[in-house]
Amino acid sequence: MSYSIDDLKTLMARLRDPESGCPWDTRQSYKTIVPHTIEEAYEVADAIDREDYPHLEDELGDLLFQVIFYSQMGKEDNHFDFDSVVDNLVRKLVRRHPHVFPDGTLESRIDPDNRPSEADIKASWERIKAEERAAKPETSAEAERSSRLEGVARTLPAMVRAEKLQRRAANHGFDWPEVEPVFDKLHEEIDELKEAWYSACSGTGRGDAVEDELGDLLFVCVNLARFMSVNPEQALNSTNHKFETRFRAIEEYLEREGRNLDGESLEALDAVWQAVKGVEKTRKA
After folding, report:
1. If DSSP codes are grouped into helix, strand and coil, which group holds residue 105?
2. Angle CA(108)–CA(109)–CA(114) in degrees, nearest 5?
3. How many CB atoms lie within 10 A of CB 110?
4. Most buried of 27, 105, 150, 220, CB within 10 angstroms?
5. Same domain membership, residue 198 and residue 262
6. φ and ψ at 10, to 5 degrees?
7. What does the pLDDT look like over 212-227, one tens digit per residue?
8. In the prediction, which pLDDT does 59 show?
């Protein structure tokens, strides 16, 4: 016997039952569950990065449980339930994919000989999302601060949010025409960061200037990644993994020689680092 989504919904309702449910589950609110949702999403990403597909199945189940949890609370508060979440999602995706569902129904199909170009599909996607944002009801406060950047979640990781903000602005013409000016801006921000740092060290500059300039530099790096069609978060994750692998290799190298990492000079550690990099290049060749 295999359990179904209906069984999962029943389980969640039982866990949240105020009389016979789990004390921990009944205490939770939308806000208290958020950290768990973020953690589960990262664990899904980690399993994919490690290509650990048996573990991925388990992590996807944990992430699905988060959706079920929010849906049960929404049902209790008469806001929404799991079925309405699914209905809203299907309707939205059908609406956003007219190149797949031309009549706006799940049953309709596109003529393979008349498929639009990828550029047309992207333009249509952005137009439809803009229409959706415009159609959402606004409070008076939201109306006052209405912007084409609205809807980019403030809780996203800073690097991910920077890329989304840049893409949103670029879709409305606020962008460099080519990559060269981005390189120029990168050098400009490096110079400004140096100036802020040396001023801070001498006591003549603002205390928060270094943070400001470093933020500007990181923002330009994200822009550069966007121009090069590189995912900056993925690129940094890859470098993190590379650094961790090399550092572990240094530890193992020194341990084999009976040496202590903490007792080595920077010059000696750098020599081992270069040796580790040399081994990597030999393997790749």
Report:
1. coil
2. 135
3. 15
4. 220
5. no
6. -65, -45
7. 999 999 999 999 999 9
8. 97
- Examine residue 145 and state whether it is found in any structural domain, yes or no: no
Question: For the CA atoms of the chain, what is the radius of gyration?
Answer: 26
pTM for the full predicted model: 0.66
Q: Which candidate, 12, 24, 17, places its Cα nearest to that of 68?
A: 12
In a domain, 148, yes or no: no
pLDDT at 285 over 70: no
Residue 144 pLDDT grade (very low, low, confident, very high; cuts 50, 70, 90): very low
Where do we find the tokens 């500007």? 216
DSSP 114: G
Task: Tell me which residue of 229, 234, 245 sits closest to 45, measured CA to CA.
Answer: 234
Same domain, yes or no, for 223 and 238? no
Record the tokens describing residue 73, joined without a space.
């609370």
Say what percent of the chain tops pLDDT 70: 96
Count how many domains the chain has. 4
| Residue where a domain stops, chosen among 109, 136, 163 | 136
Among residues 97, 95, 71, the alpha carbon closest in space to that of 85 is found at 71
- Report the b/e string of 31-63 with b at 16+ CB within 10 A: eeeeeebeebeebbeebeeeeeeeebeebeeee
Full residue range of the structural domain in which residue 131 is found:
97-136
Per-residue pLDDT at 124 exceeds 70? yes
Which pLDDT band, with edges at 50, 70 and 90, does 120 fall under? confident
Neighbours of 178 (CB within 10 A): 9
DSSP alpha helix (H) spans, the chain: 5-15, 23-27, 30-49, 53-76, 82-96, 118-135, 140-144, 158-170, 180-202, 209-227, 232-256, 266-284
Of 276, 281, 266, which Cα lies nearest the Cα of 245? 276
Residue tagged 């060749």 (tokens): 285
Residues 169 and 226 both lie in one domain: yes
